[in-house]
Each structure stands twice: as structure tokens, then as C-alpha cells.
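User: Show me a protein chain along with its predicted structure.
Assistant: Here is one chain, sequence first, then C-alpha cells.
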Amino acid sequence: MGRALITDLYELNMAASYLRRDMTVPATFSLFVRELPPDRGFLVAAGIDDCLDYLESFHFDDEDLAWLAGHGFSPETIGAFREIRFTGDVEAVEEGRVVFAREPLLEITAPLPEAQLVETFLLNQVTFQTAIATKAVRCRLAAGQIELVDFALRRAHGVEAGVAVAKLSAMAGFVGTSNVEAARELGLTAAGTMAHSYIEAFPTERDAFLAFVEDMPPPYTFLVDTYDTLAGVEAAARVVEELDLWDRVAIRLDSGDLGELARAARAILDERGLGHVRIFVSGSLDEYVLERLVASGAPVDAAGVGTRFGTAADAPYVDSVYKLVEVGGRPVMKLSPTKETLPGAKQVWRREGKTDVLARRGEPGPEDAAGLLTPAMRRGNRLLERSTIARARARIEHDLSVLPAAAKRIRRPDSAAPVASRALEELTAATRTGDRPTGRQ
């Protein structure tokens, strides 16, 4: 499958018109986020590698073309679509870089029909993965020393999304995932224990705990809140003592006031000399709950984050757009109220500890600045190799280390929005006041 039909119909309509009129001049489109979601002081760029994979293999296969032929597209257009491939250039931010509003994550320069056709897929990948990567990093920031495990698969918006969430959680520093296929595919640690149904299937909690230890290798994490939580902690403690369990053993709290229950459970375990037994919590967790747990001093060692993380529940999308900024060498911009864009191909110059500079591509950057956008494709050939999870995580950690503390706050952060260079400001002013088509004859 060529995947060229994973698009909106209007992309095909526009491309067909461009091709019919031989409008194949180079065009530059910029993919960026207009404004940050609420409570976000930064974003973490993700989905770039999947976009490059798509561009490298972009084509219409016979099945695609047959469907289009049966839905009103002319033989001339079908013939043109049959030959089309992505032959353009891409400048891109690498996976895991911290970015801000108005900064391009991708810039595409290609013949106009090619650049238009790929819009929907690129937005789909970058929008979702950037929202989730940002949520994952915020959870990691809020959790402090608490280890995090991805529990999102059952509530993720599709199984492919579930694998992407597991990858993004690992990039953010999560220690494992419940998603077995993602663990196999990506080389992650699979994590999981038992459900309440397992406890209920046995006559008593003790019977369930004993059976689990007999049937499974460590780690052993006993789910203790099926009935009476503190009684469950006592039952788990007795099994740990009886079987002399020392290798990777924990209890799991999945409901109620997790902070108070963790304190009570820790007291029971410590009183029995079971300081090695860890406390794992789960149940409707996100960065806000994690922050409260840490602030309260709750003795929590690890946490599973699922629904609210895997759907980025408080901010499930970013305001991403893909806008034409130059066509045939002519800078263009949109002037719609609240949706004005900046013309021309761009670069983002970053100086650690200082505000980013949004500049025209090709203009010199400030002293000691590094360009955030890097050559990713040339003439349809990929230059930027696919990032490993480890490399993406290292980028995240580096960028966070130099990000102002105010931007990393979980609530009411300050965002370090970029400033435009003088050359970009001058181009914008000239483009805004220049002669533009009015639509009148």
C-alpha cells in the first residue's frame, strides 16, 4: 500500500489542479504550532522520523489509482499521480528536541503538488506524537524520583497509537511499558502483574498471591486493594515473610487516596522489617496527580500512568499547521486575523539560556548559536538517520537541563517564545504591504 490516500480529499483536488495547470514550481511549506496548549511552557518534537519514512516511500499504488479513477479523477490526473514521488528537500528538528510556538518542526521544499499532497500525513504524525511526548516529559518532571511505567495501551486511540505512546514514554525516561508488542518491537522492558479479576478468581487474596509466586518468575507485585486495602497489604506482607521473598517484590495500590494509603502501607511493611518491598501506584494518574504525591512526601517508588497520559487528556492535540511560505521564489503569508503567518523559509537559532531567534533561512545566526533545523532530506533521499530512543532521550535531557525552570512548571508555566530576526521582520513587512492577488479581474 502506497499510503498516498492517507490524506484529506482537498489535498488531492489541489494537487490535481496544480498538475493540470503545470504548476510545479518549488514551494516551501512550514509545519509549526501556533500556540502552546494550556499549562504548557514547551513542546517536545516527535513524529519526525515517521514523517521522513513516509516521504521516502511516498507513491500511489495501483489500488489507490483504481479507487481514484472510480471517484471522478480524470485519466490525465491518474496518469500524473502514477508517476509522482516525493523529490523534495526537508529541514527538520530532530526527535526529542524542545521547541516553542511558531518554530518550524519541519519545512518542506518540493514541487508544489508533491508538497501539497503530504500535508495531512505529516500533521497527523507530528501533532499526535508531539502532544504525547510533551505529556510524557511533563509526567517525568512531576514524578521526581518515582519510576514511571506506561499503562496506556488499553485506552490509546488505536493499537498503532499504543505502540507510539510506548516509544514516546521511553524517550521521556519511563522504565517500562505494559504493551508487550511495543516492548518486543522497540526493545523495551515489558511490565505487568495481575488484575483484580485474578484476585477474585481465588478463594482469598493469600491464595492468589501464593499462586502467582508459584506460577511466575519475579518480579512479584501484589495487587492489594481488591477488597480492604490495608488488609491486602497485611496479606501480601505475610506471603513475603512466609516465602522469604527478597527479589523484586512490591505491592500495588490502584484506588483510593494513594498518598494516604501509601503512607499506611509503608508503615505496615516497615514494622515487619520489609523495607525492601516497594510501593507501586496506579489509577487515573497524570503529571498533576504525580506532582501532588511528590509534594505530599508519599512513599511511592513507582507508578503506572495510563489513560490521562496516553490520550494527553488535558491537552489532546497541539495547534499545528502546515502553511505555504514561499512559492516559485516568491514569499507568501496568510493575513487572516489571529492566523497570520510569517513568510519565507526559516531557521531557528538557539543559544543555551537565551531566547530562540526565528530567522530567514540562510541568514547568519547570532554568535554562539546553533541551528535547530537540520537537513533531513535532499531530492527525496533521506539524510537524517532514524533516531534511537536513547539518542532522543539524550536530546530531551539536554534541552530540559538548559530550559528555564519557569518553563518547566507543571502549572502556569512561562513560555520562552522565539523572537524574529530583523531580516525576517523586514521580509514580513514587505510581504504584508506588497501587491497581492485580490481575486478580481
